[in-house]
Design goal:
This protein is mainly alpha-helical and about 230 residues long. The radius of gyration is 41 Å and the shape is rod-shaped. It contains four helices and four strands; from the N terminus they run αααββαββ. A hairpin with a 6-residue loop joins strand 3 and strand 4.
Length: about 230
């Protein structure tokens, strides 16, 4: 009976290792997600800064155009013949000057925004650098863990094969069937005349047979294989 208990313990350990192994890709993906998020935020910040740069160049071009327009208007001042036309001309120059001032204010506002956006992008750059280092480090750790788990699974699988080879084939087959049906627990102790698997009471005579250990006894309720362990 001790061999069956040992076999079940190995099976449980292998199952736990395989679950751990299955979780490793998700752990790597979680770390990658943080890097992806940082890179997305970096790209958005860079895109915003690029747009501000384009807007700034557009405003600079508009300012030069407005200045040239004002220059042309002033050059025409001497050509004005009547007072009415002269005052209308001055009004046009005044309007153009106001437009120039408005464009200059826009440029100043954009320069302030660009300065802030550059600082923000710099912070995102630093964050991405940090996340890349964290991702690479964590990935290496997980890959080492992955390889370690693989090694343990291989080692325990060999131990299982050796142990299973020393069991009666009929008993081993019986164990495998129950293990599948009972989700990994085929062998359980009997405690205080109770099956530790299903918690149901065992008939006194059956419990005594389990304690004697002369034959393989199943629980009449859940059909797991019972064994006696005084310390359990």
């Amino acid at each position: 009976m001790g061999l069956l208990v040992s076999l079940q313990e190995i099976d449980r350990e292998v199952l736990a290792l395989r679950v751990l192994k299955d979780e490793l890709p998700a752990k790597i993906a979680a770390v990658r997600d943080r890097l992806d998020q940082a890179e997305a935020e970096q790209a958005a910040a860079r895109g915003a800064l690029d747009q501000m740069g384009r807007d700034h160049r557009d405003r600079e071009a508009k300012l030069e155009e407005t200045k040239a327009h004002i220059g042309r208007l002033k050059n025409r001042t001497g050509e004005i013949k009547t007072n009415t036309a002269y005052f209308a001309h001055l009004k046009e120059i005044e309007s153009a000057e106001k437009q120039r001032t408005a464009v200059e204010d826009e440029i100043l506002g954009l320069m302030e925004k660009i300065e802030g956006a550059e600082k923000e992008l710099s912070a995102h750059d630093a964050k991405v650098t940090e996340e890349i280092a964290g991702f690479e480090g964590r990935r290496r750790e997980l890959e080492v863990e992955y390889a370690h788990v693989d090694g343990e699974v291989e080692e325990k699988t060999k131990a299982r094969e050796k142990l299973a080879g020393s069991l009666d084939p009929v008993l081993l087959s019986r164990y495998e069937i129950i293990r599948v049906q009972m989700r990994g627990t085929a062998v359980v102790p009997a405690r205080n005349a109770t099956c530790a698997g299903c918690r149901m009471r065992l008939p006194p005579q059956l419990f005594n047979q389990v304690r004697e250990g002369r034959s393989i006894i199943d629980c009449p309720h859940c059909h797991r294989i019972l064994y006696w362990n005084p310390s359990a």
